[in-house]
Design goal:
By secondary structure, the protein is an all-beta fold. It has 3 domains: 252 residues, Chondroitinase Ac, Chain A, domain 3, CATH 2.60.220; 74 residues, Immunoglobulin-like (Sandwich), CATH 2.60.40.10; 145 residues, Galactose-binding domain-like (Jelly Rolls, Sandwich). Strand 5 and strand 6 form a beta hairpin.
């Protein structure tokens, strides 16, 4: 079946190479021919650019007839807080090198939003409807706006499913990519009402396509834009800046994502569609401890209101409300549902799963607090506990402490420049910290994360100094959620190594050699 992936964009390169953070890449066009482009931070071709806050591994696949599609590979599962692409304008290499003006404004489970200061462009990838201080949208979308030179340019792209879009993507079952669905025939897709809040005063003027959308003024000089848009369609809007700071719009059109000319599109009219239930639920819980069941990402594609949320938790209990708390009384795996109803009486139901375990005895628990510059994957006793990015805040993971040997194993990845790992471990009543007692390898070896792996050929980690004083991190901030001074920033001797594998064992004696015989002495036994 292969790993999940996002189909980013289909276009006709016409012999032009793709410019990327890893150099120039040629693109396949023969149908079925797929090429791995490597881990990228950015890429652009012609007037289309992509910025990957992850970064992420990107592939290209030929579609025939001179076309190529770009693919964001997710590996075995989708990590929503990294799996995003923000669409930006392309540019000449001298202007777009590394997109040096990029500022990441938001990078979480709702959306990725970046600003290219050098070109006055804001780009966003929304996983679900959300409002931010920069822009708001009611449905998953890619959008971009550019201001400057007295002009306004706005693009909205509809990449998402017509059916339910699950927000909680676990490592179990069949994770579904919320940002794309290549199975939909664009010609048969229905319209969906997009409502976008923009931080500008916008007004229509006499020009092309003014009947395609509607504008409504909001407080604080914001404007609500409404437009019906089918899957794989983009909405383009352009205008001129007025002396009072507002923008007069003079051109709008709807087209396929790579169409040279607009397609025929119906004028804006409200549509009625059923709501979409989106349960956001923790995948794991502890017996007797309440967890949050959040349905706030649910939405109504026609812009209506969801009036009722009904939760069935799988243990016989039910509740109503957008956000509710519930505690399970016994261990097990529970299959639940969220049903939503909109103001027209339409309903939708989505399923979720929660694994409930007994409380962990702190005297026998293993807690790992970890941070890495730039990313990590954490394993304890061979089991993957999770992954993370963004070194400013540590994440805490809990596992059961085994009798005998316990092994913490980490794969850490560097996206460029300096890199290091920081960790604090609580094993029952004992504490351990990242230091030169950790072992490392610069290459992956089969079974490296397992307890019984033979790591005698691995070398000690190299320390770049204590947390709180080591540079370059201390000049910015201390890592939240982890001790100061005792943990050390560790890596290989080469800060720029792209990947380093770490191992640290607890509950076994340190490697010892038999004592060497004394030199310069003779010993006689007996006569």
């Amino acid at each position: 079946f292969g790993p999940p992936y996002t189909w980013l964009y289909a276009f006709k390169p016409a012999g032009s190479p793709l410019q990327t953070s890893a150099g120039t890449k040629s693109l396949p066009v023969e149908k079925g021919n797929r090429q791995n482009l490597g881990e990228l931070r950015w890429a652009y071709i012609g007037d289309m650019g992509f910025y990957f806050p992850g970064p992420f591994y990107i592939s290209a696949e030929g579609l025939g007839n001179g076309y190529t599609k770009l693919i964001l590979d997710h590996g075995r599962s989708i990590d929503r807080e990294k799996a995003a692409v923000v669409i930006l304008p392309g540019a000449q290499a001298a202007e777009a090198e590394n997109y040096r003006g990029i500022e990441i404004l938001k990078q979480d489970s709702q959306a990725h939003i970046v600003r290219d200061r050098s070109s006055n462009v804001l780009g966003a990838a929304f996983f679900s409807g959300a409002e931010t201080q920069y822009v708001g949208v009611n449905l998953p979308a890619y959008l971009m706006y550019k201001t400057g030179a007295n002009q306004f340019h706005f693009t909205l792209y509809n990449p998402h499913k017509e059916q339910a879009i699950p927000v909680r993507l676990s490592h179990e079952g069949n994770p579904t990519n919320p940002m794309a669905d290549a199975s939909i025939d664009p010609a048969r897709a229905t319209h969906q009402l997009y409502q976008v809040k923009l931080p500008f005063r916008l007004q229509k003027s006499s020009g092309e396509g003014m009947a395609l959308f509607d504008l409504q003024p909001l407080d604080n000089n914001w404007t609500l834009l409404s437009v019906n848009l089918r899957v794989y369609r983009k909405f383009e809007l352009r205008g001129q800046k007025n002396a009072d700071g507002s923008y007069s719009l003079d051109r709008a059109f709807i087209a396929l994502n790579d169409a040279a000319v607009p397609e025929e599109a119906a004028p804006y009219e409200p549509v009625d569609a059923k709501p979409v239930a989106v349960p956001n639920v923790p995948g794991n819980a502890t017996v007797g401890k309440s967890i949050m069941f959040d349905g706030s990402a649910s939405y109504d594609p026609d812009g209506g209101a969801i009036q009722q949320y009904t939760w069935e938790f799988g243990d016989g209990a039910t509740s109503h409300g957008q956000k509710v708390l519930h505690a399970y009384a016994r261990e097990g795996r529970f299959q639940g549902t969220l049903k939503v109803r909109d103001d027209q009486g339409n309903e939708d139901t989505a399923a979720f799963s929660v694994r409930v375990t007994a409380p962990v005895d702190s005297s026998t628990s293993l807690v790992v607090k970890i941070s890495a510059d730039d990313r990590y994957e954490l394993y304890v006793n061979g089991e993957r506990l999770g992954s993370g990015s963004g070194w400013e805040t540590a994440e805490a993971y809990t596992a059961q402490l085994r009798k005998g040997k316990n092994v913490i194993a980490v794969k850490a990845l560097n996206s460029g420049s300096a890199a290091a790992l920081l960790a604090e471990i609580h094993a029952g009543q004992q504490q351990f910290f990242s230091n030169t007692q950790w072992k490392i390898s610069r290459t992956m070896q089969p079974g490296w994360e397992k307890v019984d792996f033979d790591d005698r050929s691995w070398v000690p980690a190299f320390s770049y100094g204590a947390h709180g004083t080591a540079q370059p991190w201390a000049q910015f901030t201390n890592v939240q959620g982890i001790a100061i001074q005792k943990p050390q920033w560790i890596w290989s001797k080469y800060k720029s190594d792209p990947v380093v594998y770490f191992r640290f064992a607890i509950g076994e004696p340190q490697d010892r050699q038999p004592p060497a015989a004394p030199t310069g002495l003779s010993t006689r036994i007996g006569n």
